[in-house]
Amino acid sequence: MPGDILSRSVTVLSENVFPDLYESGILDLQKGLELGHFTSVDLVKAYLARIDEVNLNGAALHAVLETNPKALSQAAKLDDERKSKGSRGPLHGIPLLLKDNIATLHEEGMNTTAGSYALLGSVVPRDAFVAAKLREAGAILLGKANLSEWANYRGKVPNGFSGRGGQTLCPYYPNGDASGSSSGSGVAMAVGLAAGSLGSETDGSIVSPSSKNNVVGIKPTVGLVSRAGVVPISSHQDTAGPMCRSVTDAALLLSVIAGPDPRDTATLYQPGVLPDYMKALDPNALKGKRLGVPRIFLGDNKAILEAFNASLDTFRALGAEIVDPADFPCAEEMKESQAETLVLKTDFKADVAEYISGLLEVPTGVKNLADLIEFNNTHADLELIPPYHDDQSRFIAAEATEKNDAYYAALAEDFDLGRRRGIDATLQKFKLDAIILPTDGTASKPAAISGYPIISVPLGFQPDDVEILPIPAAPLHTQAPGLPFGIAFIGTAYSEFNLIGFAYAFEQATQVRLKRKAYAEAIPATQIKDVLSI
């Protein structure tokens, strides 16, 4: 009888106070921790079990490259600290995932490899700045998320593939394209494999996988968040940023990781004291605001166009004025420009060598891009796997570059097209507070070449009768029933506070994320109640 009573009480408790890990937000989890309904150890056990269910088993999403062998012991220490000293704040004891190009302490037991065997076993000198900030706030770094290898800069290979992590898959359709390069971060958030995550973006690598996996992604202004300890592509365009299930969670993580860092000079030019981005979460933030639609950048996907055009009425109902069209003065030039390609491949050659030179140990002996190319050729069985994953053409093109007059002209062209005659000119010409576009397509490029912020939130899903493309998957379906897509908010430098407000107001009014869940085999079953010690 006592056992039956205990069992029934746990059932009642689970129904009332245990948040659903598929969707629960960081603040919901923190409330449960504060009330003692469960512990951080319980959370870590539950998330590890969920990863085990669908990462390599079940749907085999390949979202998580490796987990932290010390996560449970760290959780136990944070539980003890909560009892003895109180909570550090909203991230105390909360498990998060980091993209595998973000350095974490080597002695903790996780690698930092950008998905490549070339950096396996390399010893980083310290946590990346963003990892250290999260750790200081009490977060548990649960594991490393898979990614498009070298943040999709090795060559033309399917999104979400890395030699170490295999092929990441979207959880909304079997063999679906999860986009990239922060593929694993997006997939893990979609089905609740951690409470929050970080990705990184050079051009689209946060917002695109956020769009394709039905989550929220914030790519900040270059200089708001330190890149120190993040495997680079381009010092002019790279930034880390949050990928979460809600604008609230993303704003919370951004508030923690933003700030100046002497190891990244770009962060030393931030405008005064940074705001608390949680204070931007206003459901009325769109009232009286002017949003512009650069219609020349809209693609031709029927479902996305219909959902985007319908969203304009939602914005109007929320009090915004829509300026449509509000095209960039330099739109055609921007679409044709190849300046970004030259800047990225030139930066990558120099920046990756600088990153490797800062490592304390590199067991493979690679020192620069030429060594990486040779490593891949020598270890083709691990890295250059036919028929889809054997390309390193971007590496080879980057190796042939040098910082010459053409490079500096391309850099100036990017800033001119992206900033002066692009985003800033459009905002000023039409007296706009922000620019809105479907995330899929060209939305990321203006923000990328300017270094300005962009936020993606869920907008809709492909209909059930949409044509599945390609058939057969080669190796991924880029179009299929239920594949998600998002809407992007773009602004000038350091306009994150306003953009977060606009994104939050839209998210709260539409609640798109839960209108469709991932396919059944991709959803882990484990919940907190399943791991509690009774």
UniProtKB/TrEMBL annotation:
Transmembrane annotation, as ranges: none
Every Amidase domain range: 42-499
Highest rank taxon of the organism: Eukaryota
One matching Pfam family: Amidase
UniProt-listed SUPFAM superfamilies: Amidase signature (AS) enzymes
InterPro entries hit by this protein: Amidase_dom, AS_sf
Classification via PANTHER family: AMIDASE, OS04G0183300 PROTEIN
Protein name (record): Amidase signature domain-containing protein
Species assigned in the record: Suillus fuscotomentosus
